[in-house]
Amino acid sequence: MLKRLLGRDDEDKLEEGLAKTRRGFMDRLASVFGPVDITEETWGDLEAQLIQSDVGVGTSVDVVTALREEARYAGVRRADELPELLHEVMVDEVRGAARAAGSDDDGDRRDSAAGDGQPHIILVVGVNGSGKTTTIAKLARLYRDAGRSVLLVAADTFRAAAIDQLQIWGDRVGVPVVAGQQGGDPGAVVYDALTSTVGRDADVVIVDTAGRLHTQKNLMAELVKIRGVVDRVVPGSPHETLLVLDATTGQNGLSQAKAFTDAVNVSGVVLAKLDSSAKGGVAFSVTRELGLPIVYVGTGEAIDDLAPFDAGAYVDGVLGAAAS
Fold first, then answer.
1. Three-class SS of residue 174?
2. Whole-angstrom distance between the N-terminal and C-terminal Cα of the chain?
3. What is the pLDDT of residues 16-66, one digit of tens each?
4. CA-to-CA distance for 107 and 82, rounded, in angstroms?
């Protein structure tokens, strides 16, 4: 529903947010891309450094294999000539995985439009501490600034103060929040929100859910129930189910994320706290491992620090001077 185009401000935020990741990459790759001839050791070292940067084993192997082929085709024999080729290969890797996951080149889902006269419903899921509630506020701000009327639904009735936290963010962003009582039935909260006057009149409804681990079977079952309630009230919804991943957890977060994709048909990923990670390479393996596109990335703590994901801009931000 919201066309995710990267503007100049977004590019600047992405570049600034990736500063820590860029330094981490550069420190690791400096020892590989020296003014020396390319050897078998060069490829092995590059693969190891990519893995240490949370690019993932499978993705790292594919990147190095593709880079070797590109270097052979281009007649490149020196290691310090590889960065530009690496940039091209990594962009192709992210875009290729995104297309395979059912999105366009840069993560914009093609099948997420709501029906006529119905609100566009977004279900947001993730583990505790992933930055889920803050991400919801940032999404609300993006939609509000695009001229949409937004409603937030506080369906996290499990965590203490979760309702208050979302209401505070709603006040800051200037959008209403529908909430129930702590410990109440989250499905009932969602039903009441969607059948209320404000829910029916909203252009966009964003539903916050309780953070949970994949091992908490009762909470995962509750999440499935919430999705069922949304679908009954507005058939065919939620139109988007976004999984918020903490970029600082790296590869460790992917196994947990797979459980969410199985339970509630996640349609896209928001990579939060990217600015806090020195190993932001996890974005290269998220789409490949989860079969999902990255839709947005969190680039800071401010309310407007959420940028649409763009493969080229992301790789620019990660590799920086190494690709020039």
1. coil
2. 35
3. 666 766 777 777 788 898 889 999 999 999 999 888 877 888 888 999 999
4. 27
Q: For the CA atoms of 209, 210, 211, 215, what is the dihedral angle to 10 degrees?
A: -110
> Using an 8 Å Cβ cutoff, are 214 and 262 in contact?
no
Q: How many angstroms separate the CA atoms of 49 and 32, rounded?
A: 9
Strand pairing of 306-308 and 294-298?
Answer: antiparallel
For residue 42, give both structure tokens: 């060069």
CA 77 from chain center: how many Å?
37
Cβ contact 62:89 at 8 Å: no
- Nearest one of 151, 101, 94, 120 to 267, comparing CA atoms: 101
What is the token pair recorded at 132?
């889920």
Asked if residues 17 and 300 have their Cβ atoms less than 8 Å apart, the reply is yes
Q: What is the pTM of this model?
A: 0.84
CA 55/CA 50 separation, integer angstroms: 6
